[in-house]
Amino acid sequence: MDKEYNKLFRQYFIPVKSFIKKLVKSDDDAEDLAQDVFTQLWTKPDIWQNNTEIDRYIYRMAKYQALTFLRDHARKYDRGLVDADLSQIEAIKSDISTVDPILHDEARLLLDMALEKMPPKRRQIFTLSRFDGLSHKEIAEKLGLSVRTIESHIYAALATLKELFPR
Predict the structure, then answer these.
(1) Model pLDDT for residues 14-30, shown as the tens digit of each residue
(2) Contact 89, 130 (CB under 8 A)
(3) Which are the contacts of 65, defined by CB distance < 8 A and separation ≥ 6?
(4) Residues of each domain in the chain carrying CATH 1.10.1740
(5) pTM, whole model, 2 decimals?
């Protein structure tokens, strides 16, 4: 078992570390995350022993380690996007989309799914606020609702999204 694991480690560690580094942009963090991947593998010999598709499994593990790290890192350095103006949000969305198209696509898919599950009025209000850049007052006038109702819907939408994208 040790021999097979050592072979696996020697064959994949450096490529996995490089893959993770492309996502997290830090050599030290990539090293730590790659170590975590192989530590987890060590505890699950039934997965890697005699598995002809272990490379797919390893890279999937590496991707999720990196995504978890990025999510936790974003939580630590949250810039208060709830109160950010539209230009700040667009700048950050642009930064995210250039980091890795896969991460961007996955995050966008999660966002779209969350929005789809919201009640129609809440989704409409949130979209007008965050994507169309309308103020609470403008939305209230456009939809014939009170500003307080708009704030309530946006707060509820943000609470839903915070569960999906925790800080």
Answers:
(1) 999 998 888 888 888 89
(2) yes
(3) 20, 33, 36, 37
(4) 2-76
(5) 0.46
